[in-house]
Amino acid sequence: MPSALLCVCGVVVLLAAGCPALRLLPDRYCLACLCNAASNCSPRIGCQQQRGHTVCGPFLLTADAWRRARKADRQFAHRFRYLNYRMCASDPECAAEAVSHALAHSASDCDRDGRITCKDFGILSRGGPAACRNSTLARRAADSDYFRVLEGCLLDVTAMLGEPSPPAGCGLSA
Q1: CATH for 157
Q2: Nearest 5°: phi and psi at 52?
Q3: Does some domain include residue 172?
Q4: InterPro entries per the record (predicted)?
Q5: Stretch 22-34: mean pLDDT
Q6: Side-chain half-sphere of 141: how many Cα atoms within 13 Å?
Q7: 170 in a structural domain
Q8: Buried b (16+ CB within 10 A) or exposed e, 75-107
């Protein structure tokens, strides 16, 4: 079976040949909003400490997320093998792919609305994989300034694309 991509409500579903499981990846609009929420997509942000972790680049990528992405996708690891964590975090293409693969590795219905959407990826980005298993952490992530910026960006993108908001039930059931 050939590989295929299907875009569903801000999420790209990757059907890989010979792979029985679906991989959910944030689409390019979701990635742009995640970047906007993290740092206003500033290319000069460098590295800083946040909540006890070093985060770098416009996506505020953690070393742990970079390692998860490299482990989850060998093609990504091979394509960007010449970039260490900090260099990848500062490279827009590498950072976007790292974030995408790290989020796909932990994709889950974090807000318990029956769908996996960009908002779930936002909760994962802000609260880490534990936020999807812990409703208190998920709520804290969803109540953050980061999440408010993400939601505003997603509404702006929806308006710019001239698409109605996804109807209830649109998306992938978790």
Answers
A1: 1.10.530.10
A2: 80, 10
A3: no
A4: Invert_lysozyme (IPR008597)
A5: 89
A6: 26
A7: no
A8: ebbeebeebebbebbbbeebbbbbbbbbbbbbb
